[in-house]
Design a protein that fits this description.
By secondary structure, the protein is α/β, with parallel strands linked by helices. The chain has one domain: Metallo-beta-lactamase, Chain A (4-Layer Sandwich), CATH 3.60.15. Helices cover 25% and strands 28% of the residues. It is built from eight helices and 14 strands. It is globular and about 50 Å long.
Length: 260
């Protein structure tokens, strides 16, 4: 299982950080987690993956910096340059189905599937199985309904957990099950600051410990979050391996264990 960070930033424009989005790959199977502005271009730029190869899109929530590229993605998939016949899943928190209906109301057939089946789902805690992945979700505390995802490769058992935005909940920690290979945790708040609905490095580090994570990736970084400071603060609460996300970074548990 390889996780590629396509956007490590927030809604605030930054020279080196795009809006949120990550790719989960196992062999030729691919899932996109969040689709902020520019993510579909970074998908090709950093991962060499075309939209026709995506199996599904998982939205953590419907703030614009996490879902703005969904309409351009669906529009692009109508092009003869991107022939697609495999079904495409778009799933997210309650409201995702209505979000697609709103896009359809605005753009009409330009966001309709051409030669493939489009499945749009609101997730309400059920376990979803899609193309060899087991997908579990749990709410976090955010200003808008946000769901974290635990994505497990059913063949190898490897897993990753994306928090999306928000502070931890008991259901999130329970979903982790005390064993998470790669935790991609939002860290939008600088050290020693606090903000309702977001985590600072200390909170992200504590969550990694509570989840039994083997690798913590600090993600969704605002301009005020300096690399050394956020990593150092998180390390006070988590003794495992810590990485600070960058656009284009690819991580796997195997590469970390081997020192790569």
């Amino acid at each position: 299982m390889i996780v590629t960070i396509l956007g490590s930033g927030t809604s605030v424009p930054q020279r080196a950080r795009s809006a949120p989005g990550s790719l989960v790959r196992v062999g030729k199977r691919c899932l996109l987690v969040d689709a902020g502005t520019g993510v579909i271009w970074n998908l090709l730029r950093f991962a060499g993956i075309g939209l026709d190869r995506l199996g599904g899109v998982l939205l953590t929530h419907l703030h614009i910096d996490h879902c703005a590229d969904l309409a351009p993605m669906l529009f692009a998939l109508r092009s003869v340059e991107l022939p697609r016949s495999a079904p495409l899943l778009v799933a997210g928190p309650e409201g995702t189905e209505n979000y697609y209906k709103s896009l359809h109301g605005l753009y009409g057939r330009w966001v309709e599937p051409a030669d493939y089946e489009l499945s749009v789902k609101d997730l309400r805690g059920e376990v979803l199985r899609w193309e060899g992945f087991e997908i579990r979700s749990a709410r976090t505390e955010h200003s808008l309904e946000n769901i974290a995802y635990r994505i497990t490769d059913e063949e190898s058992g490897r897993n990753c957990l994306f928090t999306g935005d928000g502070q931890p909940t008991e259901s999130l920690i329970a979903m982790a099950g005390g064993e998470v290979d790669i935790l991609i945790a939002e860290c939008a708040v600088p050290p020693e600051d606090t903000e309702m609905g977001h985590m600072n490095p200390a909170q992200a580090g504590a969550l990694a410990s509570d989840c039994g994570a083997r690798l913590l990736v600090l993600n969704h970084l605002n301009p005020g979050c300096q690399r050394e400071a956020v990593a150092s603060e998180a390390a006070r609460y988590f003794s495992g391996k810590i990485l600070v996300a960058e656009d284009g970074m690819s991580v796997s548990l195997e590469s970390v264990e081997s020192g790569g």
